[in-house]
């Protein structure tokens, strides 16, 4: 057990997370900022216990909803917990801009990371039986990843007046995308962000913020 995670003993809203899961880390960071009293339970990935969900992150509230409210997609949990806060304000235009980045992450960036990074960072889970097929998968995935990073660098972050992905303040888009890109610094990956200077500066700004401080290191 690490960070502010607690044992799964009391009832009420609970957030299940794993420190090695990028989506978990994003919702964990958000919860610490906007719902500091929310009970957080850290679950080892692959751990199967009756009181723990099969997937993390997972938010469950059986105290205020009947049947219980259960959310098991990272972006859905982020939106639910952040609604009406600076991380995901009530303004429809602001939400649309944030959703645009989140949808891009889910549709383009995450698949590229899955193919180009995860077989190196977590080979027992993502590598293929044939080493040559794995190399080809990684090569194509990293080519897609480079295109995604160029889009962020030259498009989303092109306005130098915007410190973050969706404007001057940090939102759930920064938490989600930033958490995913932290995998690039994995010792088995080590993808250089120097060709993408705006992405590099933005990620450094995120990780230096108080929002990022206080979580256990990723594996």
From TrEMBL:
Residues 91-219 form the GST C-terminal domain. One of its GO terms (cellular component) is cytoplasm. It holds the Pfam family GST_C_2. The keyword Mitochondrion applies. Keywords: Cytoplasm, Mitochondrion. It is found in: Cytoplasm. Residues 11-89 form the GST N-terminal domain. The keyword Cytoplasm applies. Signal peptide: none annotated. This is Glutathione S-transferase. The lineage of its organism: Eukaryota, Sar, Rhizaria, Endomyxa, Phytomyxea.
